[in-house]
Design brief:
- This protein is of the alpha/beta class.
- It is 38% helix and 23% strand.
- The chain is built from 16 helices and 25 strands.
- The strands form 7 sheets. Strands 15-16-17-14-13-19-20 form a 7-stranded mixed sheet, sandwiched between helices.
- α2 packs across α7 and α3 (80-91) packs across α4 (95-112).
- It is globular and about 80 Å long.
């Protein structure tokens, strides 16, 4: 059985706490590795070493930092297959999903190659007599990233890439469920030319998280996970004087209008609702057909598509649609919520509660489920299930459908499927949600736009990647400079009064 250590100062380092966690193979339910869990003292040591390395990296020409990003892109593409294999083995997602995870992270690093452009300041010539004013964007110093299990490559790269491009050093605390790929990414950055110590990886649990939040050297904290934890981390980080961006849960609605292409809408819902076994913050988990006829037509289209989905381990080939969920606890939680939906009166149209995969009976597989006639008071509607469960809430009108999305406490993403441009434009303008899709089920912006939700899906005022990431990971310094216009006798500088 392999050990998964920490990564400090450019090398893998065994833990000293004496505490370990289990890393499972989600397909078999077996423990495949032991994870070294950091103590607060180990975290403090990693942060201190990052602080030693950061000044030289922060003083490095942005163009040279961009070249490190370019080389990292080349190296990740070189190792794509190996990284995807490891990612799938620990997370459970299919190989195509794993490569998509890596690719979307890679795109943000590609965007970071523009660091020299993004870090330019402003300049005003002759703001006063002989006076110039200019601004500089400078790195925060050492920052921490606390990342989730569902995208073990993409999410770290969304934060680490911009942080490093801006000249910071990063201490990453990955999920303890699938921690190997983040270490491999750190090794690739060092191979690409990043100085050792600028990217540290410490594994652990709440003890490690709290140590990062309380460390005076850490200047900024980024987090992605559930809303309760996001709120906790944001509050504690801010109380300690740190800049923080914390992204929480979601309950993404997709409104289906009567004029929508129903085949297109059904295909979109199946891909967005069941891809990656529903373990995505941008998964569509609520379908909202407008009108009873629309709802009936949509259900008729969905059922045969869902029943054809192939659930299997990633090793079964590229035609696998869904792998297992990440842990036994996640599986039990999902099945418990499905049962609550039945108990509370929803109609379970596709029922896979008894799903078992021959040869993998101990794996964490959950078959796809479809509910109809869900109401907003039900737990399956209010709660982020984070599994392969799609709920259908029938709306009597467009205004009712819009209200469902607007009234929910989460505001990460939403979508509308319609052929009517006026309806789509009205929806995009009025809905109080951060990312909107029009005939696009998962409206994740590309790397050069920013990603982030509204309401209880986010804590902090700057989003992930895009221009916001360069703002988050830098401070603005403004300089007012006056230079002498002549010399007095004796060689003294002569300064004129500023008007």
């Amino acid at each position: 059985m392999r050990d998964i250590p920490h990564y400090v100062n450019g090398e893998r380092v065994s833990g000293t706490s004496g505490r370990f966690g289990d890393v499972y193979n989600p397909a078999t339910g077996e423990v495949q590795a032991k994870l070294h869990m950091a103590s607060a003292a180990e975290v403090t040591d990693a942060v201190a070493k990052a602080a030693e390395a950061q000044p030289a990296w922060g003083a490095t020409n942005p163009q040279k930092r961009a070249r490190v990003m370019m080389e990292f892109v080349r190296l990740l593409n070189r190792d794509m297959d190996k990284l995807a294999e490891v990612l799938s083995s620990e997370h459970g997602k299919t190989i195509p999903d794993a490569k998509g995870d890596l690719q979307r992270g890679l795109e943000v690093v590609e965007y970071c190659i523009a660091a020299p452009q993004m870090l330019k300041g402003e300049f005003t010539d002759s703001a006063g007599p002989g006076i110039d004013m200019y601004s500089m964007r400078q790195p925060l110093g050492v920052v921490a990233s606390i990342m989730p299990f569902n995208f073990p490559a993409m999410m770290p790269l969304w934060h680490v890439g911009p942080a490093l491009a801006c000249g910071n050093a990063v201490v990453l605390k990955p999920s303890e469920r699938d921690p190997t790929v983040p270490i491999m990414l750190a090794e690739l950055f060092v191979e690409a030319g990043l100085p050792a110590g600028c990217f540290q990886v410490v594994n652990g649990d709440k003890e490690a998280v709290d140590a990062l939040l309380d460390d005076e050297i850490i200047q900024g904290v980024s987090f992605v996970g559930s809303t309760p934890i996001a709120q906790y981390i944001y509050s504690r980080a801010c109380a300690n004087g740190k800049r923080a961006q914390c992204f929480g849960g979601a309950k993404n609605h997709m409104i289906v209008m009567p004029d929508a292409d129903m085949d297109q809408a059904a295909d979109a819902l199946v891909g967005a609702g069941y891809g990656a076994a529903g373990e995505r913050c941008m998964a569509v988990s609520v379908a909202v057909p407008v009108g009873e006829e629309t709802a009936d037509r949509l259900i008729d289209k969905l059922v045969p598509r869902i029943e054809k989905l192939r659930v299997a381990p990633y090793t079964a080939g590229d035609d696998v649609d869904m792998g297992p969920v990440v842990t036994r606890e996640a599986k039990e939680r999902i099945l418990g919520l499905i049962q609550s939906g039945v108990d509370q009166g929803a109609e379970l149209v596709v029922d896979n509660r008894d799903f078992k995969l021959q040869g993998y009976e101990d794996g964490f597989f959950v078959g796809p489920h479809l509910f109809d006639k869900v109401t907003p008071d039900m737990d399956i509607y209010k709660t982020e299930i984070f599994g392969p469960v799609l709920s259908t809430v029938r709306a009597g009108s467009y205004e009712e459908a819009l209200g469902l999305a607007m009234d929910h406490e989460y505001g990460n993403g939403t979508a509308i499927f319609t052929r009517d441009g006026d309806t789509a434009r009205d929806f995009a303008s009025r809905v109080n949600i951060g990312m909107v899709g029009i005939n696009v089920p998962i409206p994740v912006p590309l790397a050069y736009h920013t990603f982030g939700g509204w309401k209880k899906s986010v804590f902090g005022d700057l989003n992930q990647h895009g221009p916001d990431s360069f703002k988050f990971y830098t401070r603005t310094k403004t300089v007012t400079a006056r230079w002498p216009s002549g010399l007095k006798e004796g060689g003294e500088f002569h300064f004129k009064q500023m008007d």
